[in-house]
Amino acid sequence: MINLIKKNSLEFFNANGLPSKKLENWKFTSSKNFKSFNKSSSSIKNQKIESDELSIVFVNGVLDKNSLKNFKFSDLLEVKNLDELNDKELLRCSENFLKESMFNLGISEFEHGSYLSFKRNSVIEEVINIKNYFFENGNNERVSSFNIFHINEGSEISIIEEDIKENHSIFNLKLNKFICENSTIFKYGKSFNDHSQTYSLSYNYYQIKKDVVLSVDSIITSSFFNKEFIEVDLNNSGSDAKINILNLGKDEQHIDNNILINHNAEHCTSFQHVRNVLDNKSTAVFNGKVIVAEGAQQTDSNQSNKNLLLSLESNAFSNPQLEIYADDVSCGHGSTTGALDENSIFYLRARGIDYSSAQKILIKAFAKEVIDDFSLSSLQDISEIALDSWING
Amino acid sequence: MIKIKNLEASIDDKTILKGIDMEIPAGEVHVIMGRNGSGKSTLANVIAGNEAYEVDGGSISMNDTDITEMSIENRALEGIFLCFQYPVAIPGVGMAYFLRSALNAHRKHQGKDEMDALEFLNNAKAILSELGLDDSFLKRSINDGFSGGEKKKSEILQLLTINPKLAVLDETDSGLDVDALRTVAKGVNKFKNDNNSVLIITHYQRLLNYIKPDVVHLMIDGKIVESGDMSLVEKVEKDGYSWLEK
Hints:
The complex is a heterodimer.
Chain A: H1 2-16, E1 38-39, E2 55-59, E3 62-63, H2 67-70, E4 77-81, H3 88-91, H4 95-98, H5 101-109, E5 114-118, E6 128-134, E7 141-151, E8 156-165, E9 170-180, E10 185-192, E11 199-208, E12 213-221, E13 225-234, E14 240-249, E15 254-263, E16 269-278, E17 283-292, E18 300-309, E19 315-324, E20 330-338, H6 342-349, H7 355-371, H8 377-392
Helix pairs in contact in A: 1-5, 6-7, 7-8
Chain B: E1 2-11, E2 14-24, E3 29-34, H1 40-48, E4 54-62, E5 65-66, H2 72-78, E6 80-83, E7 90-94, H3 95-109, H4 117-130, E8 141-142, H5 148-162, E9 166-170, H6 178-191, E10 197-202, E11 215-220, E12 223-228, H7 231-239
Helix pairs in contact in B: 5-6
């Protein structure tokens, strides 16, 4: 089945090519540098990989099955190759992603994708670390991957994902699908602080069933190019999706968040909170959309994007959108972009705190409001260290 | 303590202060009264070094050090403390962290060791208790979600923690009920001693029922036109300011 999907995707990409700025989701993000990357060869040998009993390791997007031998909860995990899956519903991708040319390129190129399924009632209190190692076979390689994570009924799983890159010229095209069955709690955190020149383009699709609590927390510092698509389908009642994202940009970094939340059922809540701190010539884009379908009554949704510009040459493009087709809902959205507040700086300086320290205090306060909302306390700790290092770096 | 000589200042090319002369020796409480727009708050901001204002002439000195060109933070470290008329709310910055950072910046400037967290907390809790504030005040963000009275009490908490040489109270009494006014006055009276000075900017007599001034100045159109004792306050309460313009 997967081979047919790959074939269709390749045809789509060949017909449409790289995304142009005429497309709404690519209006402020150029794909022209994508041309300089070529598909990687998948063979990686003799590389040093560190894993522990709480780690699941991927190497260039491919699950390292050896790492599962040490994994403390391997008895709660069922692993299959994607080409063994014949269930259409498990493999079903977002319709919106299927209209994305780069998503199709990723589907056509990935090799050895995995299906990781946490069994029913798997309650794991510890945080599982997903370590993505990237090794280079040649220059300017594009690494495409596709993996599916299935959280089965009654389970409670927390994951923090980090990228470990030892080179400066990888294009990481990462496709993930997450299925959260009824009555699950899934906390997913991401911390990318690699200081490399990596291009990262990811498509994350969350298929949410009934009475699910989903949280997606992310901090990104120092990635040269990072564009992420997140789509959450709230398909059954009583579910809650929280997305908290903090991006810290410097130099000429480009950060782009595209978030779509589909409220397809009643009594669901969603919360998006994206903050960007931008220095030098860095750029951030926020395209956030909430669609409340007809009949999705009692939806409670909030969307917020705040951008702090530390330099005259930094730029933020913000496009929060709401589409509501139900009449008994509570939905709000807002966006602000601005520099540090001079009155606040004056207030701190009037108490003897020097200008530079006052600036740092205010940047930290702005960023920390997102970190404080992270569901994963260990990611909060990691993020605070990363934030301090970014501010003082 | 502080000497202001022929001070002229403007904002957005509009001249506000048109030659202020004033001297507040150590141990004295001075009051400035005047109509709205007379330049009282501008004077407070210029003393604190607010860069939104341009000093066009004259000088300000603290204990014989000319501070006219000094940065905001260095003035603060030299002992100037402005109690803001409208304290800024800064979400995300905890009061305890802020107060301790400010206090330790002063201690470092004075050549003292930084105060450790425990000693700081004990000191802060003692001040909070005197101001009728709960210890949880320290866990809140600076002035974020504070009532008008809490904001002014927060200013007094900062004043008593930092213990500067000159406190400039810019309409600290505005918007306070009687109980909060008494608390603020109690804090200021606790602060003042023979080695420091207080400059109170106000429209009303009511704060002065609790803090007795040594000198009262009346300001009109960017100039001090009359200085005297408490009887000036009573005359202003009774007759307003129009008699000064004749």
